[in-house]
Write a structure and sequence with these properties.
It is a single chain. The protein has about 170 residues and is of the alpha+beta class. About 25% of the residues lie in helices and about 25% in strands. The protein has helices spanning about 1-15, 30-55, 120-125, and strands at about 60, 70-75, 85-95, 100, 110, 135-140, 160-170. Strands 1, 2, 3, 4, 5, 6 and 7 form a 7-stranded antiparallel beta sheet that branches.
Length: about 170
Amino acid sequence: MRTELLLLMLLMFTVGGCTDPGPQTRNMPDQEELITDNQRAARQEMRDIDLYLKRRSIAAIDIGTGVHVSKLRDAEGNVAKPDQLVTVNYVMELLSGVECYKSKPGEPESFRVEHDDVESGLHEAVQQLSIGDSAVLIIPSHRAFGLIGDQAKVPMRSTVVYRVGVVDIKDVR
């Protein structure tokens, strides 16, 4: 009986034991493939922005890094500068028109140019605007929420469109 029990236990350990399949290999793309894929995606994003502008008949200026600015109302005055506090009413949406975020009515939001945690493209674009200006700002993903989006409402690699109205610009001291 003891021998049978010992054999049964040995059999259970042998049959029921875990087997290590060894290291699993995945074919990861090499650096050149990643660079090529990102360049292709960036070219496609620029084509998407151009199509968006054409479909909506928006005349916009590319201000250097793919960020496009189209002033709807051009007020005279000094444009925002780094370190200033800019207060804006805004609606932010995707190229598809899906609204993601907006300021509450009567409660514009403020941020410090080139300091606060908002998209780098927004920092760049507001430096083209003065108090009283309203504009459409098209910000490509690399100047907005990047490769991963914002993990809430903005999907990965998304171009965003801001409709902004500049309420105030103040020096911070």
